[in-house]
Amino acid sequence: MSQFILIIPQAKPEQTMVIQNLFLEGRANWWHWSSDVWLLIIENENLAVEEFKDEIRRALPAAHFIVFKVDSPSKVSGWGPDEWVLWFKQFWK
Question: How far, in Å, CA of 91 to CA of 87, rounded?
Fold first, then answer.
């Protein structure tokens, strides 16, 4: 399993759709309730951060972005709507 934080500053709607299409087909669980931030859990793949960066770069060659691989996802804290809490409890383990 691989877990990433992807930040695409000022992402355009078409860029958002490209990212969604990469991960919608059951490849990953994702959280995207903040416009420039994606939290991604890729269950059946163990990707290095460089591999994930290369995949995003191929999909969005003109975009500037940053990717973080999360090695300790249980260390998370925040405050938000119930939907956020439920998502984190279910997927971000």
Answer: 6
Q: Write out the DSSP string of 13-66.
A: HHHHHHHHHHHTTTTEEEEEEETTEEEEEETT----HHHHHHHHHHH-TT---E
Phi then psi dihedrals of residue 59, to 5 deg: -75, -35
CATH class of 2-91: alpha beta
Sorted by where each begins, the domain ranges of the chain are 2-91
Whole-angstrom distance, CA of residue 2 vs CA of residue 23: 13
* pTM recorded for the entire structure: 0.85
* Strand, coil or helix: 93: coil
CB 4 within 8 A of CB 68: yes
67 SS3 class: strand
> pLDDT of 3-60, one tens digit each?
999 999 999 999 999 998 888 777 888 899 888 999 999 888 888 999 999 999 999 9
